[in-house]
Amino acid sequence: MDDSSRPHRAAIVDDFLESEGTARMEWPAYSQDLNPIENLWDALGLAVCRRFRHPAKLRDLETAIQEEWRLLDSTVVDHLVTSMITHCTLCMTLRGAHISY
């Protein structure tokens, strides 16, 4: 995956990928729509916020994140995986621009 960011274009990275026979996959610059983990983080964040708005201690937040991660409905993940075909098609149609939902 290559989003054309500067670290991904460094000569040393290019040399290493070439030496390993790894082909780059072109990736649009505005590819948040093709990163399902962002939607997963959003679902996790919403679940944590439903518990409490502002945790008093960092440990409380850490515990809440871990508990909500375990409780996260697998249908959320399944939907993110199956929706990738639609997201990729829309992204290609929009030439990498943001997909409006």
From TrEMBL:
Coiled coil: none annotated. Gene3D superfamilies: Ribonuclease H-like superfamily/Ribonuclease H. GO terms for molecular function: nucleic acid binding. Residues 3-47 form the Tc1-like transposase DDE domain. Pfam families: DDE_3. InterPro entries: RNaseH_sf, Tc1-like_DDE_dom. This is Tc1-like transposase DDE domain-containing protein.
